[in-house]
Specification:
By secondary structure, the chain is of the alpha+beta class. The protein has 11 helices and 9 strands. The protein has a 7-stranded mixed beta sheet with strand order 1-2-7-5-9-4-3, covered by helices on one side. The chain has a two-stranded antiparallel ribbon with strand order 6-8. The structure holds fe (ii) ion.
């Protein structure tokens, strides 16, 4: 029986820990290892253990360090009915954890779907003794459900599409966006296999948007911001401008947890209060320990993390024997142009959704009869995805 039979994204697994995959090995669009020192595709972790082996001495030492230190102190895990408090914490920290976003049935369906898609990725044999193909531009043993899909999204999968509008998530999103006229812009998520020994560098997901359009200001006013002007100039004062940026995240992602986040299985790290920083996050070489340990340990399976995509965050080592999968749904503020996200939800699936989900997804649904180019093809290598997209289009 192979390790991919009965693959599950929670509980112990034989998947991962490929000793033949060197630490920090990035591959290009064709799967060729990037030359030593070439960092154009991503940032290597200078402090990663030298071997991807579960009981390697450096890995064991890192495990001891994480056991003692990993996890943000006193992270608040809210109940779904605490929508107002969730929004307050979200605006304060740039993220908020809420338990039981998925009921047992939805959690089971999302786990099954996450494992089904992951199996497609891992079935592709690696080269040179490697168990798997590494995703182009990503650290080994880490995959994105979104970028590994040739359509860049997974909204063509009925399970992902069914998570657009949940009784637990929608009230919180409405508090965050100040109304119900926001949009779904995508769905995917990410995962790490056991043996993902490298830290992913802290980053924000999108280029910062420091424009203050009339629509953005209006959205902030709806959320209670009272614009003030500088005496004598009529211009908005600095404090008001800052408050508007803080209250108007362009994009919000809800990451759903398929397993409990433990100190050992690659819990996501979030740096509180970084959602409107103009400066860049530190590199891995410069990152202090308090940021490396600022992870959401203790968040349970079925919970989710509402993330302001501007907040600094990154993936952490998975030294366990459990896959850490976080499928997601991504949303755009009412004032954000949705053109660049268009056309990833097939009309045939959109038709099966309830009315409110249909409205949220109106901007990204294909015309009747049109299947999104590349949807259904999963491949870690960019060149293969582009080929699949060209073949289908
Ligand atoms: Fe990210």
């Amino acid at each position: 029986m192979g390790e991919l039979d009965d693959l599950a994204v929670h509980g112990e697994t034989a998947v991962g820990w490929c000793a033949a995959t060197p630490p920090n090995e990035f591959v290009d669009e064709h799967g060729r290892p990037a030359a030593d020192g070439a960092t154009v595709l991503g940032e290597p972790d200078p402090r990663a253990p030298a071997r991807r082996v579960w009981d390697d001495a450096e890995v064991s030492a890192m495990r001891d360090t994480l056991r003692r230190n990993n996890g943000l102190q006193g992270v608040e895990v809210l109940e779904p009915h605490e929508a107002d408090r969730a929004a307050r914490i979200f605006f304060r920290d740039g993220f908020v954890v809420v338990r039981d976003l998925l009921d047992p049935d939805r959690l089971a369906r999302f786990r099954e779907a996450s494992a089904r898609i992951l199996k497609q990725i891992l079935e592709i044999p690696g080269e040179g003794g490697r168990k798997y193909v590494t995703e182009s531009g990503r650290l080994p043993h880490r995959y994105s459900y979104g970028t590994a899909s040739a359509s860049r999204q997974l909204l063509h999968d009925p399970v992902w599409a069914s998570m657009i509008d949940l009784p637990t998530t929608t009230p919180i999103l409405e508090r965050i966006f100040g109304g119900d006229d926001y949009n779904v812009i995508g769905a995917g998520g990410d995962l790490c296999l056991p043996g993902a020994i490298e830290y992913q560098a802290l980053h924000a997901d999108f280029q910062p948007d420091w424009t203050l359009t009339a629509a953005r200001i209006a959205a902030a006013v709806r959320l209670g911001v009272r614009p003030r002007t500088q005496p004598g100039t009529g211009e908005m004062d600095h404090q008001t401008r800052q408050l508007i940026f803080e209250r108007t995240p362009p994009h919000v992602t809800v990451n759903f947890l398929m397993s409990d986040l433990t100190w050992e299985n690659g819990p996501i790290r979030q740096i509180p209060g970084t959602q409107t920083r103009a400066q860049k996050p530190p590199t891995l070489a410069d990152e202090p320990d308090w940021m490396r340990f600022s992870t959401l340990v203790g968040a349970p399976a079925g919970a989710g993390v509402f993330r302001d995509n501007r907040a600094w965050h990154g993936a952490t080592p998975n030294l366990s024997r459990e896959i850490r999968a976080m499928p997601n749904v991504e949303y755009g503020a009412p004032w954000v142009d949705t053109d660049r996200f268009a056309g990833t939800l097939p009309h045939a699936i959109w038709q099966t959704l309830p009315p409110r989900a249909q409205r949220l997804a109106r901007a990204i649904t294909t015309p009747p009869g049109v299947w999104p180019a590349g949807a259904g093809v999963m491949h870690p290598l960019r060149s293969k995805r582009l080929q699949a997209k060209a073949d289908i289009a």
